[in-house]
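Two folds, back to back.
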Amino acid sequence: MISIFDLEKLSGLLKDFYEISHIRITVFDENLTELVSYPERVAPYCAVIRGTSKGFDACMACDRQACEKAAKKHSTYIYRCHAGLTEAVTPLYVGDVLVGYILFGHVFSYPSHEEGWAVVEQRCADLRVNMRMLKDTIFSAALIEENYIRSAAQILHAVASYLILERMATLKEDLLAARLDAYLSAHYSEKIKAPMIAEYLGIGKTQLYELSKQLYGCGIAERIRALRMEKAKALLREQKKLTLSEIAALCGYSDYNYFITVFSRETGWSPGDFRKKHSTPSF
């Protein structure tokens, strides 16, 4: 997890949302790990559906797909879940970094119980759930109008903005930045790639790229190349006894010709010309 959530404040905020809307609300981190919800228990019909492995897996897959769509849209996404219930999800961004999701769900939004049950029954037919028990819970559910859901979704979006504004979710960017800088400083001359760095930091490749853009204004590959070029320039200026091939190797380039190509492209000078122009004079 690349963020820190104030769970105590979040719990209070979710409770307030529920008191107004009577709709269950949940916060996930960026990996879709549930952090806090109010109420803690899911709706009775959801409990029946999740009571089987197929039903549980279908719910998890549905949540993931919905969150991915919301993240791409950068806005609240209202949808019918795999079982025919209505949900809404809003992505949580700190700056440009996705840190989690806030979701309300399991709303029975149909003109009548009969019409809704026809949809739910069809969608849950292959989930091996107790259909009699599921029907009982469906017919006990409150009927929620579409206008009410749209209004609740607007409030959900406002709640998401508020919890970011009030720093209930913040990046661990100071710690991550220090770890990333230390790692790159120690290993930039080695054969390192983004997946290795992401694994070391415990974040995804996309999140690593976003963090790099925030910290350095460029991607990881560009940052590594910049560090290598600075090292090469320092060696060319200060270490006259080193050959260009040795300098290339010290900067992480096993291919001497490729080093010359990259250095010339990045600085506008060939390594030899740079050394002649910028060498530290000896006395």
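---
second:
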Amino acid sequence: MIDSMAAKIYMEPSLHILATKISGVAMEGALKIRETVLNHAEGREASEFKHGPNTILGKNTVFGVKHVRSFVRAFSQMIDDIDEQAEANGISHKEQKDLLKALADYVFTHNVPFNLSAEGTKLFNKTVKNQDFFEPLYRNYPLIYVTGPDARDVNLTISQINTHKIRGANTYVIAEENEQLLKNASQNPNEEGYYHWAYIMLPRTGDSLMTCFSATIVLQLLALRMSVRKMKKLDLLGVKDHGVHPDVPKNVSKSITVD
């Protein structure tokens, strides 16, 4: 289950670990992810994730490789549609190239081209009208919840989960087995929309103090699996000097201490 969760979040550019009354565990887990995965991660008390920190949920401009991939796929489909319509309207291949260059420029500048024919301009205006080019970039934000087995802590965590997932968050839980916690984490707030969740069940102890130890180990293993997956992915993509490695991560000294 740890590797399954890692597979979903290892390329996310940012995430938060939210703990109920054991915030030190969340901060330690976030530190390990920052060190070995080189993703932005923050650990904090779950009840403090509001009025400012939770503005990251829903649409934001924190984009990673998966977000860019979705954008490129949508843009490629748009290019195919333009080529098809240009052929049907008798627009020359040279002007088709100019049209695509103008479109790529318009996405980031909103500069309107002036070198197209009347037919090309008509097709261009039709393509960009009411078009949200950046919609494919937006994804749910990953939140990892950690809680002990105390009933009050579990209920507070459930409240946080339901508060945040309706605003655009995916839910990942690290806790002892609890039927209500599982039910609330797994329910999709929007049946037609994408939503992902995962639940790593800790050994049953009934003791929040013991949860500190077991959850910390799980978070360390999660960071390890994320790091290995991201390292392999970036190597496959040919990204040079990316610095992601579980044993020798970028800028993290493992042999000496620097004051």
